[in-house]
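Narrative of activities, Objective 1.

The group set out to show that a structural description can be obtained from nothing but a protein's sequence at a throughput compatible with the screening campaign. Below is one input-output pair from the validation batch, recorded exactly as produced.
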Amino acid sequence: MTQSQQAAAAAAQAEAEPRIDPATVVGWGVDADPENDPTWPMRNRANDDGPGMNWTPPETQHTEVEILQSVEHVRRPAVVGQSTPPSGLSGVIRRGAFRLSESQWGHWLLLMLADRVNTVEGVVDDLMRGRAPNPLVEMGIVKQSRSRESAIATAAVIGLVAVALVSVARRRR
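Output recorded for this entry:
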């Protein structure tokens, strides 16, 4: 007997023997009475001219920066964030991600890659401005009020790692 024949036989047996007797289930058929239907306002909206989701959507926000939008959606939401527009290499990667459907892995993998690239871009930007990044505070590991101590600890750890790398490199020669 093939697998499809086995499935057909199992379906026929399930139809012949109901597993649940509706008379024994408390609350079974609660919404059978149309006068006492708890789902009425939302059920069968296609044939209903009554009030409901008939509303004018709000005017969309006027933006001054580029907003990336999924290919699945026809219009943007009424309010969008403008604080960090796509820029640099991470922006190029994000634009490529938004050319793909949300149902494709590539869309999400490219967005995760863009996040990682953006982190590196942020560190480089901090260094270009003469600020040393403080990952312990930025990641929320240490409170902002103790940022001076964490900056010293971060510098000490970076110094130890640099000394270790130099010593390893010298031993290999």
